[in-house]
Each structure stands twice: as C-alpha cells, then as structure tokens.
C-alpha cells in the first residue's frame, strides 16, 4: 500500500476534543492514516455501528467505583482527543511486519475488546473507541488476533458492523446465564441494539422469548422472534405472570432500575437474572430472600470473551442472525447520528459510512 497516496485521502475521523459533553464536542478533522505496527492489521472501514457506549463515553457517564457520579469513561479517565467507534466491518488494507497469509483484501470484523489476559475466557477491560482509537474513521488498526475473516458471509458490511458490541454483549449474557432450549427468557429493552440481538439469539437457541417493548416498536420486536411482547407502559410483572405463570428461567436485562426488585420474584427456582445495562437506573434494591430462598442468581455481564466472539463470528458466517439496520449516516453527520441514537425512537442499529 502506498502510504503517501493513502495520506492524501481525506482522513477525517470523528474526535471529541479534551472534554466530556454533548454532541457539540465532536470535531470532524483530518489525521494521518495509522501505520500498522508489528502484529497489527490496518482495516479500511466499510461501516461502523453506533452504541450507547459512544454516548456515555462522550458524556463521561460511567462514574467510578468510589464516586458513581464522577465523569469517567468505561474503565476510568479517557485520553482526549479520542476517535470513537467500537464496531467495525471493512477490508484489510495492509498488515504489519511478521504477518503472512494473504489477509490483504479480505473482509473482516474487528473484536473491539481489550482483554485482561490471554486465553479464550479473558474478560474485557477496555474497548476500541474508548481506551484506544476506533472506527469513526476511514482506517483503523487492530491486533491480528482481534481481526476475524468473514469474507464468505452473506451479510452486508452494515449488518456485520452491528455485531461486535450489541450481539457480542447479547451472546455474553446468554452464555453466562446458561440459557437452555425450552426455557422461558424475558428480554428487557428489546427494541434496542442489544435487546433485539438478545431476542434473535435466544430464539435461535430454542428459548421461549418474552420481550419488553412499547408502541410502534412492538411489531418489529415480534418480527425479530419474540413469542410474546410485554408493553413497557403497563405493569410489567403483572403482564409477565399472565403470559408465563410458571415464571422465567432467565431474565436478560439491559434496563435494571426498579424492575430488578419488582421482577426478581418472577424467576423460577434456580433462575438467573443477567444484567448488562442500566438504562432504567443503576441504584437497585431487592428483597434478598427472593435470591437465596430460591437458589436464584443475579449475574453481571460485560460484553463477551474471545471464545464468545468466535461463536458470534460463526453465526455471522452462516448468517444465522439477521441484524436490523435502522438508519445509515455519513461520517460527517456523526453528531446527528448520535442524536438519533439518544432519542431511542428507532428499532435495531444505526451505522455510519466513512
């Protein structure tokens, strides 16, 4: 690859300057094409998907263990300027030294996680677009072991870009919650990126899927695979009892808040409540007797492991899930795209094209 020719391209990724804040802190600018280091791959971005973590990283909304209201990124302070964007699908443009095997030109998806150790069961402790530069750009680099060849997948680049964070988080929740075929699963926030992924993967696993949604989104959630849809505007526990009086085997929850305390009695004996978000509030209280007297579990789940991401890429190659793309924006409209995401009026995922 001619580095000089590449540098002449309009390298204009989205960068927040040295401050947390609203969409106004996003700056559209030019930077040099990153050079892949030894063991790294340079990817020409075809599509990048948006996630709630983009909003919360930009806002510094994650808090710290010692101060829940402190401005902070996912795992601590963010070094600005930072190119956002965790979810990338594209083609390999160049490789660093020591890499062989004809990867250039292959279509790939990047695992955006930064792990705490090596091995298939490592935990994510950082994220592309947060702890290192991401895919709101024409080019991004990634370690070779995080680049997955999906050239043969029938999914589009837009669909592939939706997978890493949303579907990776969903698969991590389902695996950690040990969802089994024939069990009843309740999915909260079912019209969002992770929620819709949970509905699709749980249905593919053979679960009976109940989903919480509302208004015009209900039909889309049902079309994604939900057997029954619970109206968020009503009494959720009462509706669940009406359609599933035997109780839930697993609750796959990205909302948390008051629903945890209200809904814990809905679990069957040995049931699991898996939490991977706090859209409804992070300050949770529940009757602990409903936990230990029924051998129930409350499980925290943050994204995926390398092994889970490998399973996800197998699903992508076989197109066993069909991601829903709600809207696509050009990269220079990143502020508008994040505004659309924050309004939560869409079903599925929002993507951008460099």
Task: Kindly describe this structure.
By secondary structure, the protein is of the alpha/beta class. It folds into two domains: about 210 residues, Medium-chain alcohol dehydrogenases, catalytic domain (Quinone Oxidoreductase, Chain A, domain 1), CATH 3.90.180.10; about 120 residues, NAD(P)-binding Rossmann-like Domain (Rossmann fold). The chain is built from eleven helices and 17 strands. The strands form four sheets. Strands 3, 4, 5, 8, 9, 16 and 17 form a seven-stranded mixed beta sheet that branches. The chain has a six-stranded parallel beta sheet with strand order 12-11-10-13-14-15, with helices on both faces. β14, α9 and β15 form a beta-alpha-beta unit. α4 packs across α5 and α4 crosses α10. It is globular, with a radius of gyration of 20 Å. It starts with a helix and ends with a strand.
CATH level-4 homologous superfamily of the largest domain? Medium-chain alcohol dehydrogenases, catalytic domain
What structural class should be given to the helix and strand makeup? Answer: alpha/beta
Helix content estimate: 25-40%
Q: Uncertain segments of ≥5 residues (pLDDT<50)?
A: 1-18
Radius of gyration: 20 Å
Q: Into which percentage range does the β-strand content fall?
A: 15-25%
What is the CA–CA distance across the termini? 19 Å
SSE pattern, N- to C-terminal? HEEEHEEEEEEHHEHEHEHEHEHEHEHE
Q: How many domains would you count in the coordinates?
A: 2
CATH architecture of the largest domain: Alpha-Beta Complex
What is the third-level CATH name, the topology of the largest domain? Quinone Oxidoreductase, Chain A, domain 1
Would you tell me the overall average pLDDT? 90
| Number of distinct helices | 11
Please give the largest β-sheet: 7 strands, mixed
Mass-distribution shape: globular
Number of β-strand runs:
17
């Amino acid at each position: 690859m001619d580095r000089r020719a590449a540098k002449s391209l309009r390298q204009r990724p989205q960068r927040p300057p040295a401050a947390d804040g609203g969409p106004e802190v996003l700056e559209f600018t030019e930077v040099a094409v990153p050079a892949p280091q030894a063991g790294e791959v340079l990817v020409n971005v075809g599509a990048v998907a948006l996630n709630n973590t983009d909003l919360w990283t930009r806002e510094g909304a994650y808090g710290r263990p010692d101060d829940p209201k402190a401005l902070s990124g996912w795992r601590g302070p963010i070094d600005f300027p930072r190119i956002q964007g965790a979810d990338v699908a594209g083609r390999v443009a160049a490789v660093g030294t020591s890499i062989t095997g004809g990867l250039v030109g292959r279509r790939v998806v990047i695992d955006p996680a930064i792990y705490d150790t090596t091995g298939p069961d490592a935990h994510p402790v950082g994220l592309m677009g947060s702890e290192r530069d991401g895919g709101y750009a024409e080019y991004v680099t990634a370690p070779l072991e995080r680049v997955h060849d999906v050239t043969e997948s029938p999914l589009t680049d837009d669909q592939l870009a939706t997978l890493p964070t949303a579907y990776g988080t969903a698969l991590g929740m389902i695996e950690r919650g040990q969802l089994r075929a024939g069990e009843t699963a309740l999915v909260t926030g079912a019209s969002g990126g992770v929620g819709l992924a949970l509905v699709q993967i749980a249905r593919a696993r053979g679960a009976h899927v109940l989903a919480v949604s509302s208004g015009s989104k209900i039909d889309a959630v049902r079309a994604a695979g939900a057997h029954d849809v619970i109206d968020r505007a009503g009494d959720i526990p009462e509706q669940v009892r009406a359609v599933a009086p035997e109780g839930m085997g697993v609750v796959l929850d990205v909302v948390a808040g008051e629903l945890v305390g209200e809904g814990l009695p809905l679990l069957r004996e040995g049931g699991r409540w898996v939490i991977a978000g706090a859209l409804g509030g992070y300050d949770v209280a529940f009757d602990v007797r409903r936990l230990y007297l029924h051998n129930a579990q409350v499980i925290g789940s943050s994204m995926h492991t390398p092994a889970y991401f490998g399973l996800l890429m197998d699903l992508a190659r076989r197109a066993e899930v069909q991601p829903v793309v709600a809207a696509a924006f050009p990269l220079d409209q990143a502020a508008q795209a994040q505004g659309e995401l924050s309004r939560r009026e869409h079903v599925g995922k929002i993507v951008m094209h460099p």
